[in-house]
Amino acid sequence: MLRATVGYMEQNIPQMLSFTDSTIDQQPWEHWANASFISNSKTEIDLMAMLRDLIGHAALPGVFGKSLMEKYPGLLHDIYDMDTGMMFFVMGLPAWTPIPKVYRPHLARQRCWRAMDDFQTALDANVAGHPDPMWGDLDDVSPFILGRNKVYQSKSSL
What we know:
- The protein is mainly α.
- It folds into two domains: 1-64, no CATH class; 66-142, no CATH class.
- The protein contains eight helices and two strands.
- A two-stranded antiparallel ribbon has the order 1-2.
């Protein structure tokens, strides 16, 4: 996992800043860090948000493979939103609590569950030799996740 994550970081660092005003041409981490084009060599940006996203865009594919982020591009921010609401989950506040700070993490958790359930289904099919064409062959999934899947499969067949 570490080699893959470092490889993604090596790919992303030269593209860390695009120095462009067009959000279409910006990298995802620039967009989320509110990059503001000043000149061809200057961009104002929230450094911590950019670094957090840059590392997330390397770590998530390093563990689960590129296909997960390609299919669910908002997953990283759903994880962030879910993390901000962890206190509300522990307190047991339901999703219908009329407070946006409670409601938003619940929605993010639902999207994360959906993405991970879809990924698990695709991984199971891939391991069984029937890759889902929407996911590809998932050849870049980390050995850790493949090992976890193998244990999961052996436990579920009991």
